[in-house]
Recover the amino acids of this structure.
């Protein structure tokens, strides 16, 4: 083509690669700050205010800095440098919280923190600290995003603003392999069928993040749930406990056990104690348990509960007289209403206590 600028074409295609190049690459495996839960890259933790999110991220930060156990069960590996931007705390509160979580253990020397930073200088501050720890696969925790979220630029929509900020955070991680950047953020205070939709603001923040963690806990309750999804991390839902108003712990010795406990909690939600007892018993037999065995263990009325629970989808009837746990149950508001409404009738008919 006469007058065509081939140098411009070359510049536009400088990042072009083909399958042969890709096939020859040897990429390192995905690294985790917390195994199975918090991988390298940009992560967004969301949850309602005042349920213990700051306690949660601080406990993870201390575990990584010390090379100890996160959530009382997950080995964090070798100590790594941690930067905690505790923008809602001061020095005294930081010391008190660390000592409450660590007990007699010293605060790790690889734990660094900042309590004040100008909103316009957050990314620059994080970048400066990362450069001081290049190659060390550090962890950075921003607590909270709301303290430094800038307003939208002129002509910029809320979605564009959120995606721009989320994109800046992700770009820092992409430029620093091994870096984990965890952002603490509030939820949007509204029920959502998909837990990703609980992120406060537009979908711009969730769309830019590599990993999303949602922390939930009913008020005045010790039990909570951590839900995890992302581009690379396996999707999961794990039961937690929150003791003494500060200490989050996995509800079980492993993620697999915590996932099983979370499923049992979800299955039993809104049911009578009797129904929950039957579900929990069936859950112990992934290959199936016979109705006669359930009845022998739990009493003469167990067979009727089995039939009703299978009808509502809480357990699975593999064949006549044989029941197995289900891998998941409907969790949308509409489905919960259907189950609860049905429960009110049949649990009362069977003489069970309505929770």
């Amino acid at each position: 083509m006469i007058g065509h600028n081939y140098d411009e074409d070359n510049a536009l295609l400088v990042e072009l690669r083909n399958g042969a190049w890709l096939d020859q690459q040897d990429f390192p495996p995905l690294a985790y700050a917390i195994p199975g839960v918090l991988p390298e890259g940009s992560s967004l933790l969301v949850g309602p205010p005042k349920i213990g999110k700051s306690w949660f991220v601080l406990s993870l930060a201390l575990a990584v800095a010390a090379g100890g156990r996160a959530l009382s069960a997950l080995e964090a590996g070798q100590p790594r440098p941690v930067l905690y931007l505790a923008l809602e705390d001061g020095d005294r509160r930081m010391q008190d919280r660390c000592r409450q979580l660590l007990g007699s253990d010293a605060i790790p020397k690889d734990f660094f923190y900042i309590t004040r930073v100008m909103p316009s200088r957050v990314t620059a501050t994080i970048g400066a600290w990362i450069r001081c720890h290049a190659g060390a696969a550090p962890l950075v925790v921003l607590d909270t995003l709301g303290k430094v979220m800038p307003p939208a630029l002129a002509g910029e929509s809320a979605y564009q603003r959120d995606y721009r900020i989320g994109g800046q955070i992700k770009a820092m991680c992409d430029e620093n392999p091994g870096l984990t950047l965890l952002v603490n953020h509030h939820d949007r205070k509204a029920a959502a069928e998909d837990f990703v939709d609980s992120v406060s603001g537009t979908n711009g923040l969730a769309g830019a993040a590599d990993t999303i963690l949602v922390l939930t806990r009913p008020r005045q309750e010790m039990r909570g749930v951590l839900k995890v999804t992302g581009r690379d991390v396996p999707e999961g839902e794990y039961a937690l406990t929150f003791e003494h108003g500060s200490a989050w712990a996995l509800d079980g010795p492993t993620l697999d056990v915590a996932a099983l406990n979370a499923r049992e909690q979800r299955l039993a939600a809104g049911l009578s104690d009797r129904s929950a007892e039957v579900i929990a018993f069936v859950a112990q037999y992934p290959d199936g348990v016979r109705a006669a065995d359930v009845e022998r263990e739990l009493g003469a009325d167990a067979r009727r509960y089995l039939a009703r629970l299978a009808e509502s989808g809480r357990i699975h009837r593999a064949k006549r007289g044989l029941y197995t746990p289900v891998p998941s149950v409907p969790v949308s508001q509409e489905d919960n209403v259907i189950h609860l409404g049905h429960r009110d009738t049949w649990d009362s008919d069977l003489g069970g206590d309505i929770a």
Q: What stands out?
A: The two ends are 77 Å apart (CA to CA). Residues 269-349 form a domain with the Arc Repressor Mutant, subunit A fold (CATH 1.10.10.10). Residues 119 and 148 are 4 Å apart (CA to CA).
